[in-house]
Amino acid sequence: MIKKTDKEINLYSFFENNQQIIYSLLIYAAGVILGSVIFKTADSTPLKALIEKALNIKVNDFTSLFFNRLGLYFSVFSATVLLGMCLIGYPLIWLVPAFTGFIIAFKVTYYYLNFEVKGIGYSLLMVIPEGAALTTILIFTIIKASELSRLIFRETLKNKDMTREINLKSYLKKFLLYSGLIVIIALINALIIYLINSLIIL
Q1: Rounded to an integer, what distance in angstroms lies between the CA atom of residue 84 and that of residue 89?
Q2: CA 126 from chain center: how many Å?
Q3: Start-to-end C-alpha separation, the chain
Q4: What is the pLDDT, as a whole number, of residue 1?
Q5: What pLDDT digit, counting tens, does each position of 8-46 carry?
Q6: Handedness of CA 100, 103, 106, 112 (dihedral sign)
Q7: How far apart are the C-alpha atoms of 89 and 20, rounded to whole Å?
Q8: Measured between alpha carbons, how far is residue 38 from residues 10, 43, 94 in Å?
Q9: Handedness of CA 93, 153, 20, 139 (dihedral sign)
Q10: Are the CB atoms for 35 and 105 separated by under 8 Å?
Q11: CA dist., res. 119 & res. 86, Å (int)
Q12: CB atoms within 10 A of CB 149
């Protein structure tokens, strides 16, 4: 029998303890790659025109920018939470990181193709920090939501009283915390876009 080395055991333990984070990042990366390829190959199709219209933010009012960002973030966040409360939400939850990576890739590719070198700077200022912060919060939300969905599914099969078996309050507290962080991210990103729009014309 071949014994595992300490390094192999540590790697295995790391994967076991963080597999949901790893899966989320891999699915997110797949969404980024797919989004980049689709945007580059869209050419002048109506889809590309629609995407450019959605990404090309012309709002210069800070309040409007804030609610624009907040609405976008909360739509994805709320979908994740609702899927976590669904009996069959667990497999669908994993579409969230793919969708997020898809949108981030669209944004970065849009700025690069339309503004070339300047587009890289716009992406570093307006897209990458936003995407990193939002994705981090969504990954933690996905972990709790998938855990809740699996519990609901398991307890439903056992025909047990879920209110006794599942501590829903603890999950709601986590989701409330994450929603507060979403608001902060939207506020910061809106401020960044507002300041950049005040200095340059996209």
Answers
A1: 6
A2: 15
A3: 64
A4: 47
A5: 566 667 666 777 888 888 888 888 888 888 777 765 566
A6: negative
A7: 15
A8: 39, 9, 20
A9: positive
A10: yes
A11: 40
A12: 21
